[in-house]
Amino acid sequence: MRATMIYGPHDIRVEDRQDPELHLPGDAIVRVVAACVCGSDLWPYRGVRATEKAHPIGHEFVGIVEAVGDDVTVVSEGDFVVAPWAVSCGECPQCLNGVQVACDHRAAWGGTDEDGFPVDGGQGERVRVPMADGTLVPVRGVTEPDEPLLKSLLTLSDVMGTGHHAALAADVGPTRSVVVVGDGAVGLCGVLAAKRLGAARIIAMSRHEDRAEIARKFGATEIVAERGKAAADKVRELLGGVLADSVLECVGTKESMDQALHCTRPGGSVGFVGVPAGGAELPIGLLFSKNISVGGGAASTRAYLPELLEDVLSGAIDPGLVFDSVMPLEDAAEAYAAMDERRAIKVMLVPGGTD
Fold first, then answer.
1. pLDDT at residue 355 tops 80
2. pLDDT score for 354
3. pLDDT per residue over 204-227, tens digit each?
4. Which pLDDT tens digit goes with each residue over 154-208?
5. How far apart are CA 173 and CA 311, in angstroms?
6. b vs e for 232-261, b when ≥16 Cβ sit within 10 Å of the residue's Cβ?
7. What is the spatial distance between Cα 128 and Cα 266, in angstroms, rounded to a whole number?
8. Which parts of 124-200 are beta strand (E)?
9. Cβ 318 vs Cβ 148: under 8 Å
10. Cα dihedral 303, 304, 306, 309 sign
11. Is 333 helix (H, G, I), strand (E, B) or coil?
């Protein structure tokens, strides 16, 4: 099969790899229909995180189950499934508490499972999914989704659930004012999540008109281009002299966290989901003096999938709009470059090419 490998900074290659096999009774083999590049994939691509050795990459995909182990009961051959970005058993205390990202038996896409068997990356033609019953979510009644539905289903693997996680952590709800820091796919999905949860005002921070336009479609009531103190001053102006009740931090840098905190009113809440890229340490003194609550972290998108899937299938939400580019899997290197250079918001990769 063909699969995407990362060798080091700016070195992405699509290569021939061995087809995956069932190794354990709980395994499934999924033929990938669509995958994508995540903003967090750009950290090793840029060299912010070291790549010690070449390995398969990708943790967001949807596809069709081709084979299952003897113990698999939740999915069957032929099912169309969404694979959350984190593998989970579904049975340990962490999974039962809805924190699948901390699963006691978690395996890593593009790495190995706890038994030492290889786990494929999502940016390839096929993937061995360990602990399939706890990980995969079948999409009942769907076998060949059209492109718009395919895009929205793919967001449920990560970005839509992550934006939702940020909104929940920031206590978003009716009558609340919301600021979203970050206009990538996660930030845009955070806007949509805030709208879905009933926020009264949603201020999206963006300097890019294409991204701002999607934010408006998702429910943003205002767009702020300023940064730093000027951004907080603009938020205060828009909200009639106060700062935001809830702020979603969707980038992961020191600057983005600083901006999020300074846009939050005393007693407000910050939900952070940006993968930390170094330097974003919390200023305890500021949190103490302003009574700001901070929550979030890695999103257990598996926990949110059932309710978000229902809304996607009903047409209540259309998060797939974050995909502004579709490329064949063979062009994975260009997909990374396009996102790194901000020529694309998020790229969907299609094995076998595109029509």
1. no
2. 64
3. 999 999 999 999 999 999 999 999
4. 999 999 999 999 999 999 999 999 999 999 999 999 999 999 999 999 999 999 9
5. 17
6. bebbeebbeeebbbbbbbbbbbeebbbbbb
7. 48
8. 126-129, 137-138, 177-181
9. yes
10. negative
11. helix
Q: Which helix or strand (DSSP H or E) is residue 241 part of? A: none
- Tracing tokens 């032929």 back to the chain, one arrives at 78
Q: Residue 266 burial (CB < 10 Å; 0-12/13-18/19+)? A: exposed
Residue 338 in contact with residue 314, Cβ under 8 Å?
no
pLDDT in tens, 234-285: 999 999 999 999 999 999 989 999 999 999 999 999 999 998 877 667 999 9
Nearest to 256 by CA among 200, 179, 188, 201: 179
E strands, 182-318, are 201-205, 222-224, 244-249, 264-272, 293-296
221: tokens are 């009531």
Extract the tokens encoding 189.
């999905």
Cα-based distances in Å from 121 to 192, 271, 302, 304: 28, 28, 18, 22
Side chain identity at residue 280, one-letter code: A
Q: Report residue 219 as tokens.
A: 């429910």
Asked if 72 contacts 26 with a C-beta cutoff of 8 angstroms, the reply is yes
- What are the φ and ψ backbone dihedral angles of 193, each rounded to 5 degrees? -65, -40
Q: Kindly state the average pLDDT of the residues 333-355.
A: 92
pLDDT in tens, 229-239: 999 999 999 99
Contacts of 293 (CB under 8 A, 6+ apart): 171, 268, 269, 270
Give the integer Cα–Cα distance in Å for 195 and 214: 13
How many Å apart are CA 135 and CA 131, to the nearest integer?
A: 6
Q: What is the pLDDT averaged over residues 47-57?
A: 93
What are the tokens at 170?
A: 């920031």
